[in-house]
Amino acid sequence: MGNEIIIGDRLRQARLNKNISIDELQQKTKIQKRYLEAIESGNFEALPGAYYVRTFIRQYAEAVGENGDFLVDLYDGKDEIGSESRRAQPETVQGSRKALHEEKSRTRTTRDYLPVVLLGFIAFMIVGVIAYAAWQDRNSDPVISQTASSLQVDGSVTSEQEQEQSSEQESTESTETTSSSEEDEMEVSMEDSTQSQATIQVTDAEDPLELEITGKNDRAWVGVSVNGDYTLQETLQPGQIESTTIPESTENFVVTLGASANVDLEVNGQEVDFDDPDYEALQKNLNFEVTYQD
After folding, report:
1. Which of 60-74, 168-182, 193-207 has the highest mean pLDDT?
2. How many CB atoms neighbour CB 242 within 10 A?
3. What pLDDT is recorded for position 86?
4. Alpha helix (H) ranges present in 18-109?
5. Residue range 187-292, CATH number
6. Domain extent listing, the chain
7. What is the average pLDDT across 222-240?
8. Are 42 and 71 in contact (CB under 8 A)?
9. Could you give the C-alpha distances from 150 to 141, 156, 157, 162, in angstroms and in order?
10. Where exactly are the transmembrane stretches of this chain (predicted)?
């Protein structure tokens, strides 16, 4: 006894040299971690008994590549440091070389075979890809063997069909454009004209309406009222232009002209002809009736 510190330090150094953690060593030897730590610190009294001390020393030594029998003899006082090299004996090989090789082969772990398995899997995948490509080539042969004349006829028919469809589409678009422009055209006309009143009908108007009033010849007073409220009141000078926007969806409004001969009026850019040769161009109320595009 008395070599516990030496034994523990030697085992600990061997473990560190092999880069084995205490937790990994516990898994290898099945010895509780606290006992392994006790051995490394030389505290053998913490172990269950002398039998377990010798057993744990041998298991620890085997896991880290040390001579367990020598360390047990050292613990029992039968040997001392330095005598191990003097009494080292050649390792006895039991059985033939073939048997030894087979024994070592059986002890190989799955990790040793992993590169071989991966290489085999890669080779299998390459063979599979080549086989699939060859199968695709064989299946594509009938399509390639079609005659040139057949392809030419098909292409000709397709081209003619495309030309017919294009012509029909252009005709349809042209008809729709013409119909749309006809439907969208706004019309302005005067109805029921008298000396002081006139009804102006505006059909297919775009909402909202923009009025533009231009003065000419001489001064003229102008007023625009919607539902009795004036949106514009102005005395125009010759060449003066005023504009106003009629509120959306307004169907009726009134334009009052103080001297109608001195005013030009446009609705959404279209001129309003309110002159009546039967009456003198004096003060006149233009009652607008509007219908809008759907």
Report:
1. 60-74
2. 16
3. 46
4. 22-29, 33-40, 50-64, 68-76, 83-86, 97-106
5. 2.60.40
6. 4-86, 187-292
7. 88
8. no
9. 16, 10, 11, 18
10. 113-135
Structure tokens at 146: 């079609």
Percent of the chain at pLDDT exceeding 70: 68
The topology (CATH level 3) of 4-86 is 434 Repressor (Amino-terminal Domain) (1.10.260)
| Residue 142: both structure tokens together | 């009938």
Q: Determine the pLDDT at residue 60.
A: 95
C-beta neighbour count of 236 within 10 angstroms: 23
Judged against a pLDDT cut of 70, whether residue 120 lies above it is answered with: yes
pTM: 0.38
Confidence label for 63 from pLDDT (cuts 50, 70 and 90): very high
Q: How many whole angstroms separate alpha carbon 51 and alpha carbon 234?
A: 123
Q: Let me know if 190 is exposed, middle or buried by CB neighbors in 10 A (0-12, 13-18, 19+).
A: middle
> Tokens in use for 103?
């024994």
- Residue 244 in contact with residue 232, Cβ under 8 Å? yes
CA terminus-to-terminus distance, the chain: 113
